Amino acid sequence: MKLNFSIFSLLRLFVIIMILFILLAPFLWILLASFRPNMELVRNQSLIPNSLTIENYVSLFSKSGYWQWIINSLIVAIYTVLISIPLIVAGAYSVYRTYFWGRNALSLFLLSVYIFPTALLVVPIFRIFNDLKLVDSHLGCALMNTAFAVPFGIWLLQAFLKSLPPELEEAAAVDGIGRMRTLIQIIIPQVAPGIIAIAMFAFIVSWTEYLFAMTLLLSNDLHTLPIGLTGIVFGQYRVNWGFAAAGAVGSAIPVFLLFLIVGRWFIRGISAGAIK
Question: Domain total for the chain?
Answer without folding.
Answer: 1
